[in-house]
Design a protein that fits this description.
Blueprint lengths: L3 H17 L45 H11 L1 H7 L4 E7 L8 E6 L6 E9 L2 E6 L4 H6 L9 E3 L6 E4 L5 E10 L3 E12 L2 E14 L6 E8 L2 E3 L1 H12 L2 E2 L6 E3 L11 H14 L7
Antiparallel strand pairs: 1-2, 1-13, 2-3, 3-4, 3-5, 6-7, 6-12, 7-8, 8-9, 9-10, 10-11
Length: 287
């Protein structure tokens, strides 16, 4: 990824922060033991239910009052966030991924990888639900009602792109990816809306294993819409998004390393990121 260098530097700076200490955080509440998924494992190809939605041609105006609801949710549940992600949380932002007028909450965890895990939360009937996370235990902690098996790894907010679709509408999508020298995977994920709820949908995915010494790919597999496919099928499915007409919209959020005098891995630092992100929210462009 083009920002690995920045993230690596951020990691070194964070180590310095940890060595120097910081403000005390509230005690973490007990949550079920979390077992992390190995970074080298390819995500399981699951067939998701079809999401029937009309193309969003006219982008909606942003609804009012969402900032207070999300900030109250983060404040009330900080202990759970701290317990689920003890390494810390590296970024907070808001993007209207399902184009319904109410932004979704994006929380980036602080892992060892150069590509970060992203947790997605949606506001449904006045309550905040987790709809996607790399940790299955997040469903139990924040409500399983709308939780999906699609998880996302990305390293910056503007990885979430708003594209004009072939049918005259608009859609957000992201290129999710991670890996090591031995193996890597990537996945094109589109964001739909079903009954007012954000639904991440896997368009296509690719998993590759490599010879560490030569870098040669020794094994690979592909899926399209959750079904086994090949390289040609993957490229064809990805093309409308990767090569689509980008609107130029830049999603905005706050990362830990953007202002290390104000942000850190404590409660105060996390909430400062969230408050600044809510203020800096980038409204959707005029259609």
């Amino acid at each position: 990824m083009k920002r690995y260098g920045i993230l690596a530097l951020a990691g070194l700076m964070l180590l310095c922060l940890c060595a120097c200490g910081g403000a005390e955080t509230p005690a973490a509440t007990e949550v079920p033991t979390v077992t992390a998924v190995a970074e080298t494992a390819a995500p399981a190809a699951e067939e998701l239910p079809a999401v029937e939605s009309e193309p969003v041609s006219a982008l909606p105006e942003t609804a009012e009052g969402w900032q207070e609801t999300y900030l109250t949710f983060l404040d009330d549940n900080y202990d759970i966030f701290a317990a689920l992600w003890p390494e810390g949380l590296s970024g907070v932002g808001f993007v209207d991924l399902d184009l319904d007028g109410t932004p979704e909450l994006l929380v980036f965890d602080l892992g060892a990888s150069a590509t970060l895990g992203v947790q997605l939360f949606d506001l449904v009937d006045g309550r905040v639900y987790c709809v996607s996370s790399g940790l299955d235990s997040a469903a139990g902690a924040f409500g399983e009602t709308y939780f999906t098996p699609v998880s996302i790894c990305a390293s910056y907010f503007d990885a979430f792109r708003l594209t004009k679709t072939e049918d005259g509408g608009h859609a957000f999508w992201v290129h999710s990816a991670n890996g090591t020298l031995e193996s890597s995977w990537d996945e094109v994920i589109r964001f739909d809306c079903a009954d007012g709820v954000l639904v991440p949908v896997s368009i296509c995915s690719r998993y590759q294993e490599s010879n560490v010494e030569t870098g040669e790919i020794v094994a690979e597999s592909y899926t399209v819409a959750g079904e086994t496919s090949d390289a040609a099928g993957y490229e064809q499915a990805a093309s409308p998004y990767v090569n689509g007409a980008d609107t130029g919209y830049e999603a905005v959020g706050m990362f830990l390393w953007n202002n290390m005098k104000r942000y850190d891995t404590t409660y105060d630092g996390f909430m400062a990121m969230a408050q600044d992100a809510a203020t800096a929210y980038a409204v959707l462009p005029a259609a």
